[in-house]
Write a structure and sequence with these properties.
This protein has eight helices and nine strands. By secondary structure, the protein is of the alpha+beta class. It binds 2-acetamido-2-deoxy-beta-D-glucopyranose (3 copies). One 2-acetamido-2-deoxy-beta-D-glucopyranose binds next to loops. This is Endo-chitosanase.
């Protein structure tokens, strides 16, 4: 489907010409991390499972800790070659100025985001995150409904309003952990982001009711306080998703560099493969001797 390695920067450069910003290039190590997660078929250290990517689909999705020890990262994965999708969230402060109508009718009641209290403490004169301005990711599932699969990323040391890296549509976009999935629906769903983040990934066709359906989006959360930009570390008042995203780019690059290609986990697949081939050759040789 997607052109790989050498051709990607060229394709992205071309597609960037008509628009001002369409996300950043995926560094090679992150690209091989993405590829290796997809080829791993399933997570071996599930921090929690039983989640759904869609209401109609299976509950084969999990929060994966396979690289928690090595890189201090947590991501959402699915069974087989799946990651998860991107539904669209419009919760948060409602601002007539920043809504271009794609969130649905302006009479829709907008829910507050989960860290509204922490965000107000930043004392920026803003009452809540604005889905049209702040690229945020809905991560973690909390609810009281019986049977609702739960996972709070705080259990593993992820901080509210910390940076989340998103690999979508062959690019890398930086957002903020801004909300939990709640138990307002029937299923414990994963794979959701604010409309501004979804637009950075997929363009203006994204609306409040129309997200990205394929399970090929990688959401990476980073453990620790150094992943939190804080009140001064991001341009929260910019009023523009691209300016906001740029303001956390240095932090994002630094966090993504936690994922190094040399660590054993990334190459687990090829190690298993080599070991298997080695064993077969050994058996064949021993038959000849
Ligand atoms: C956006 O939607 C229009 C009209 O439905 C369609 O023609 C176009 O291909 C879509 N573009 C993308 C990038 O999905
Ligand atoms: C935030 O972005 C706005 C709009 O571009 C700009 O005027 C302002 O100087 C920026 N603030 C900071 C702290 O960078
Ligand atoms: C709404 O957005 C505009 C443009 O970014 C900004 O100037 C204004 O302060 C915002 N209003 C509220 C209530 O956040």
């Amino acid at each position: 489907m997607a052109p790989k390695h050498l051709f990607v920067p060229f394709v992205i450069a071309l597609s960037q010409l008509p628009q001002s910003t369409t996300g950043r290039e995926i560094p090679d190590t992150l690209r091989s991390f993405y590829d290796s997660i997809i080829s791993e078929k399933s997570c071996s250290n599930k921090l929690a499972d039983g989640f759904y990517s869609t209401e109609e689909g299976s509950d084969n999705f999990d929060y994966c800790g396979d690289y928690l020890d090595e890189f201090d990262v947590i991501y959402i994965s699915g069974k087989g070659n799946a990651l998860t999708n991107m539904d669209v969230d419009c919760d948060g402060a409602y601002n007539k100025t920043t809504d271009d109508g794609r969130c649905g009718s302006s009479t829709d009641t907008q829910g507050q985001t989960s860290f509204q209290y922490e965000f107000e403490e930043y004392d920026l004169g803003l009452t809540d995150l604005d889905a049209n301005v702040h690229p945020y990711v809905v991560f973690g599932n909390v609810g009281d409904t019986e049977g609702f699969a739960e996972y709070d990323p705080k259990w593993d040391g992820v901080e509210p309003l910390s940076l989340i890296a998103v690999v979508c549509n062959n690019k890398l976009v930086y957002g903020i952990w801004g909300d939990y999935n709640g138990d307002d629906g029937d299923k414990s769903l994963v794979g959701e982001a604010s409309i501004s983040l979804a637009t950075l990934c997929y363009g203006d066709n994204i609306t409040g009711g129309n997200g990205h359906d394929e399970d090929d989006v990688l959401y990476i959360a980073f453990v620790g306080t150094d992943a939190v930009p804080g009140a001064q570390g991001a341009n929260w008042t910019a009023g523009d998703p691209e300016i906001f995203e740029d303001s956390i780019a240095d932090l994002g690059d630094q966090l993504v560099s936690r994922i190094t290609g040399s660590a054993s986990g990334v190459w687990r697949q090829s190690t298993v493969y080599c070991a298997t081939v080695g064993a077969i050759v050994a058996v064949m040789l021993s038959n000849f001797m």
